[in-house]
Amino acid sequence: MDKFQIFLVAIPGLEEPLRDEALAAGFHNPRVVFGGVVFEGKWPHVWRANLLLRGAVRVLARVAVFKAHHLKQLAPETRAVDWAALIPPDTPFRVEAVCRKSKLYHAGAVAERVRDAIAEVTGALPADAADLRILARVEKDHVTLSIDTSGAPLHRREHKEEVVKAPLRETMASMFLAQMDFDGTQSVVDPMCGSGTIVLEAAEIAAGLAPGRSRRFAYECLVTFDPAAASALLPAAAQKVRTNFLGSDRDGGAVKAAQANAQRAGVADLCAFDRRPLSDARPPEGAPGLVLVNPPYGDRIGTRKELTALYATFGRVMADRFAGWRVGVITTDERLARSTRLPLEGGASVAHGGLKVRLWQGVAG
Ligand SMILES: C[S@@+](CC[C@H](N)C(=O)[O-])C[C@H]1O[C@@H](n2cnc3c(N)ncnc32)[C@H](O)[C@@H]1O
């Protein structure tokens, strides 16, 4: 296979910062399309996208696009791809299909035809629990066959074993940091840090550590994988860091979890986590940086009053002690963002665990 389309699945609402990240990483002409970002490349670009991009949910290699109106067209079109040059005969695989606005409407039947054709030409066995997943997407009578080259979603950096309630995904934290113009040179503070996701992402970015350095990817089982060439894509060593990455939380369990996660990520010496209430948060020495928080939110009667008071306290602490710092608040609720009385502007609406959140940001003081 020469060049093919590489599709980065985005968190809905965060396609544009993902495109910017892909552009900054040197991928050729990445474009925002429905659901993500697309560009052309070869297998080393697939490995690099998985290893280095912080905002992609997963990376798909589009191996075929064709028109089909009948189920019987699927087997010959699928066999036209050189699957034997992709899937080793001893690697189990599974096929998932979705159909939208098309004559082919039975996703199960589509998956079956594609699966049988791939099994026939590779000798590989289909298995429901296989790690390797082939996706068949039928949209307006066009079938796209893609290999999910990531496997587990990319927010799983495999450093965060300890989580608290409602953790933020690493992919989302890094895209919100990018939207606050974080470039690795500013200090970052999260005074409601939970398991430490925001602080850890920031410290890793500052140190130039690849997000995929500790995990496996589905592309490793493909015929095209070259382990030496892929490891050469990882940065050789962490960069020197001169700024501070601070997290605090009133919950001692959360602080312990954040510390353990920082150890596992290899950034414990760049970060400090303390148990303290928001009202005691203080900026570190040095130039103003960024505060990014993901406070609790919710609509239950009773919690509403407490939450309004919590956001108001946050706003007061920022105005009194963090003047000149860029402040970001990730929340579902504009009224709560407004209760901070900070001059915050809302960004795009972003899907988060069945809810919609926005990043509200502005400068304190
Ligand atoms: C939604 S969680 C944050 C999750 C975090 N971003 C993560 O990825 O794990 C909100 C956190 O705010 C903390 N919190 C709530 N009220 C607080 C207060 N008054 N002072 C400090 N922390 C507080 C909670 O203990 C909880 O860990």
Q: What's the structural domain tally?
A: 2
Which architecture name of the largest domain does CATH use? 3-Layer(aba) Sandwich
Alpha-beta content class = alpha/beta
Radius of gyration: 23 Å
Supply the CATH class of the largest domain.
Alpha Beta
The topology string of helices and strands comes to EHEEHEHEHEEHEHHEHEEHEHEEE
Q: Note the beta-strand portion.
A: 15-25%
Tally of extended strands?
A: 15
N- and C-termini, Cα separation: 56 Å
Average pLDDT taken over every residue: 95
Q: Look up the CATH topology of the largest domain.
A: Rossmann fold
The major β-sheet equals: 8 strands, mixed
List keywords for this structure.
eight-stranded mixed β-sheet; Rossmann fold; binds S-adenosylmethionine; 2 domains; single chain; 365 residues; VC0802-like; seven-stranded mixed β-sheet
